[in-house]
Amino acid sequence: MNEGATPAKGFDDLLAANQAFAARFTLGGFDGIAHRGVAVVTCMDSRIDPLRMLGLSPGDAKIFRNPGGRVTANALEALVLGVHLLGVERILIVPHTRCAMASNTEAELRERVGASAGQDASWQGFHVIDNQHEALLADVRAVRSHPLIGDQVAVGGFMYDVDTGLLDQVV
Ligand SMILES: [Zn+2]
């Protein structure tokens, strides 16, 4: 973990910020529908702002994030719900440049986590990505071929450049 960004490990700073947020809260009374019909599967990377990079606002889209922005079983579960119950008509799969999941081997990640944890981490699995391009094609295929998603929605695969903010449609 990174040390030094915040002095305490408590949540006081965040709860204080939440008080200010709630004081000018305008998002009440929303339903859970994706009002722009968009779902995004992307990486947990802190450099990615999934709504703003697409010109969207809270309420517009369903966002599913995990390390690498992969279409996992959980992601498919979320997309099925999104398509059938929450107004999703367009699905964007968005991995990104300089992703740790694509630039480390599983052994390297285990070693780094083990060093941070001060204990053996060789039992912890990480779904590292050997080839981002091929993984993206496979992930888009997994969504398009899902029997409950299929042709009902538009599905696109995009690479997000964390240095320029640009999305490049790959498929
Ligand atoms: Zn990433």
Give an overview of the whole structure.
There is one protein chain. The chain has helices at residues 12-23, 73-85, 100-103, 106-117, 132-144, and strands at 38-43, 61-66, 90-94, 154-160, 167-169. With 171 residues, the protein is α/β, with parallel strands linked by helices. The chain has a single domain, classed as 3-Layer(aba) Sandwich (Beta-carbonic Anhydrase, Chain A). A five-stranded mixed sheet has the order 2-1-3-4-5. Strand 4 and strand 5 form a beta hairpin. The radius of gyration is 18 Å and the shape is globular. Bound molecules: zinc ion. Zinc ion (ZN) is lined by residues 43, 45, 68, 96, 99-101. Zinc ion binds at residues 43, 45, 68, 96, 99-101. It comes from Pedococcus bigeumensis.
